[in-house]
Amino acid sequence: MNFVYMRLLPAVLGALSPSLLFGALYSLKFSLETCFFAALLMICDTYCLILSRYILLEGFTAFFQNLAVFAYCRFRTYTSRPFTKLWWICLFLTGFSLGCCLGVKWTGAFVVFLIGLSTAYELWNIWGDLRNSPKTVLHHFLARVVCLIVVPLALYVSFFWVHFSWAFYSGQGDGFMSSKFQLSIVGNPLAHQLSAKRLVYGAKFTLRNAYTGGGLLHSHADLYPKEFSQALHQQVTTYTFKDGNNDWYIKKLNQSVAELQVGAPVPVLHGDLVRLKHVRTSKHLHSHNVPAPMTPSQKQVFGCNHNDSNDYWQILVDGYAEPVRPDKSSATPVIEVVNSLVRFRHVNEHCYLHYSGMNLPNWGFEQGEVTCNPFYSKSGNLWNFETIADPRVEAFTLKHSKPLSFLERVVELNALMMEVSNKFKPKPGENPSRPWDWPLLKQGYHFNPYYEHNHRIFLMGNPLVFGVCGLSLIAYCFLLLFYAIIRGKGVEHPYLKHRSAVVHTSGAWLFLGYLLHYLPFYFITRVLYFHHYLPALLFNFMVSGVVFEELLFWLRAWKPSLFPSRLLLLFSTGALIYSFVYFSPFAYGMTGDKKLYNHLKWGAHWLI
């Protein structure tokens, strides 16, 4: 496969990103020198270069985030000329960019929130301006609703329409989707599966958990470790792939499967007491008052042949009242394949068969944990019968069942994406990190397997660029404090007043953008990597521009001549370009003996 064309688009978008950053600062009325300096920080950073040179989403992320910021900053320049052509174009482009940010990665929600806050503040000021009529205020409000809410959402949903239209064939990930979702996938075997329409006693069935990515009820001959089960009971899990270990029989309490398969079929009804028997191992689904291995607040579920009342489960159809008596149903709806959602309540423990959302460790083959949950309303308690097989009952193909609508599929796929993202685990050889490591360049990340003489790419930022960015954040905080003191003392110098306004408006907005894109990662428990810092770093470049602008101002106040400021810009440009060339092997590849690159190892944990 020719990967050049696949790499071309993110590379082009990554190359265009600095120009958008330049334009955003220029729209905020910063000088050309400042805009050039901030854009040069991004150009000379090996971290940004690497993330845009490969088939990754980060090149798209940088482009659309910078485009959204640029478009919104341009939109604000037309505040005095509302509802003009350029005003509409910039507002629509902002919404379009926000939709693309969300469509590329959910971290785009941070820039959506930033611009949403700014828009709410702007509308508040428009509403408070007594010169604006109620009709004008309404027009401003509706324009922003359409362009900044409707357009991004419509664009985001349209990406899924394209996805479902082009990628509609069956694949390995089908098992993560619900039964109804699978019916809409071309080539999925479930659509052509012969199944009975209703559940009867003695039937063989497969049972799927309705929770996102829950999988099929599964068991195998492997046992729970001794620390979790003193009697070494058989594991019961959920499994997303289809095999014979997903097959179960449904029985009455005191009758065997063979007895139940003789004579006319008897339907299973809401409120019936049943036992579930695993087909391959002949073990019954069982629970008792022992903590589950991964979720100790819930009861353990396993397979055994104790033949006691801990095998007894009451089947309850969702949407119907629970029977008052455990042996008598107050309603008698039949249970249909795919369509009926049911709960299984344990008779003795009064808990419900449940998928906890956790995965078992290696001893459980990382399959889903099945427990008995004491709470009725938990979504992991709901199950549906995916297939039902009984020779006495006429079978039909499930493709005639009603599939999910487009919006229902969008909702389910997004829920699954979130579920999978939260469970993400590092692959062997990967180096996950935490947010406090990123600004300090504590450790990098290898983009290819590490060999002594291989072409090695090392994801690491330019230390000079990151040093400037880190110092700029500190300097900006001092600037905020300095100008707050100046304003508090009532100093009325026109230049200081202007600089204070810049620091407290444009600078504060960019600094808030950095915080919104960085601080949330401290509260995210999933595995994180160095590349998650990119959206925050883009705002850090612009905050560095704010500080550079302030430095230029004080230099010109000290020496009215342009020479000191031009000298500073020339020195900064030379230093950044030199540092980029020095650390460029990180991006363009290191070959040969690793000792040749020891001079690049500026950090103790840099395994270059």
Protein architecture, described:
The radius of gyration is 31 Å and the shape is elongated. The protein has 608 residues and is of the alpha+beta class. It contains 16 helices and 16 strands. The two termini are 29 Å apart. Among the domains are: 179-403, Trefoil (Acidic Fibroblast Growth Factor, subunit A), CATH 2.80.10; 432-602, no CATH class. The model has no long low-confidence stretch (mean pLDDT 87). The protein has helices spanning 4-27, 32-43, 46-53, 58-76, 85-104, 108-128, 134-166, 179-182, 257-260, 406-422, 463-488, 494-504, 506-518, 534-558, 563-583, 585-588, and strands at 194-196, 204-209, 216-223, 234-239, 248-251, 273-278, 284-291, 299-304, 313-317, 341-346, 352-359, 368-373, 383-389, 395-397, 445-446, 458-459. Strands 2-5-6-9-10-13 form a 6-stranded antiparallel β-barrel.
CATH class of the domain at 179-403: Mainly Beta
Q: Kindly provide the radius of gyration, computed on alpha-carbon positions and rounded to a whole number of angstroms.
A: 31 Å
Largest sheet: 6 strands, antiparallel, barrel
CATH hierarchy: architecture of the domain at 179-403: Trefoil
Short structural summary:
This protein is of the alpha+beta class and 608 residues long.
